[in-house]
Amino acid sequence: MTQSLSRRVVAITGALGNLGETLADMAAAQGADLVLIDQATMAMPSSHNRLVLSGIDLTSLADCQAVAHQINRYFGRLDALVNGAGGYAWEPLLGSAIEAWDRLYSLNLRTALNASKALLPLLLQSSAGRIVNIGSSMAAKAGLGMGAYAASKSSVLRLTESLAEELKDMSITVNAVLPSVLDTPQNREAMPDAEHQRWVTPAQLAAVILFLISEQASAVTGTGIPVIGRM
């Protein structure tokens, strides 16, 4: 089935990440207008179909509300939000700082929470609003040293489920993707002996996200979709 995001405005947080860049390219190829959001500085300029917002602290609700104002002024609408910002750390409880739990909570849950809350007024004006959160396959079961990361990603899934119930009569769907290890240069460097061909590529994960923000996914909400390759 051919999908099209023509005349749809899609906001992507964490736009400079491996997934964010791939998703932006694939969404643009389907005709989407883009809002690219990241804390780091992006070299690309804004254009008629792309709003670039650098230096955004998504752990700050005020920053997210400022983003909403700029989107409204630039495009006058928003149809989809992909909460791609996040972080990872391997942190056994013994010998590590307890602050790692707060840090991953902020990076993974608070960013999605703030962006969703701030951009919801714009999404409610869309005839088919979409929110997609990036969870993790470890939301179901944590491995060694993964407690803080898995707890934060499990919270993202609980946010997804709760918000989907809250919005299900308002023409907005809310879903999460739950990937295993992504095949990125950073992960290959960290795990050089792993079977990389079993991992999920950013393009494979982006394809699932693009389906979830498409018209074809109008009946899908409140789900956490595993995208685990051949792990």
UniProtKB/TrEMBL annotation:
Stored Pfam families: adh_short
Gene Ontology MF annotations: oxidoreductase activity, acting on the CH-OH group of donors, NAD or NADP as acceptor
Domain Ketoreductase: 8-180
InterPro entries per record: KR_dom, NAD(P)-bd_dom_sf, Sc_DH/Rdtase_CS, SDR_fam
UniProt GO BP: fatty acid elongation
Signal peptide: none
Highest taxon listed in the record's lineage: Bacteria
PANTHER family: BLL7886 PROTEIN, SHORT-CHAIN DEHYDROGENASES/REDUCTASES FAMILY MEMBER
Similarity-based family: Belongs to the short-chain dehydrogenases/reductases (SDR) family.
Protein name from the UniProt record: SDR family NAD(P)-dependent oxidoreductase
